[in-house]
Amino acid sequence: MALAELPGEWDQRGARWEGPQRPPHRRRGRDRAPSAPFEYMLYQTLLGVWPLDQREDAAAERMQAYAVKARARGKQETSWLNPNEAYEAGLRTFIARILDRSVSGEFLSSLEIWRSAFRCWAH
Prior knowledge:
By secondary structure, the protein is mainly α. The chain has 5 helices and 2 strands; from the N terminus they run H-E-E-H-H-H-H.
């Protein structure tokens, strides 16, 4: 089963995760890191790779590298030729925080529960 087959459930879950469960975004001027669409995509990515079979710090580093590379390729907030260091730093900070149980334990528990439920729906 794909997330596209559960649009209502996924929208509700995404809205909850964008709410008070996760740490605040890093802002510089009007920019937020990550942008709203990219934050949503990060949740989809985490759901797809969960559970992380690594130490939390190693998993955070891999997700940070992935996210910066994906944003640079997308050429929205940053790019290879025109890097936006403030945005990339904010993105790294956001990912470190959402993967840190001491900061985002409620979010990670919710992600784990949803991932387990999604596996049940997929069979």
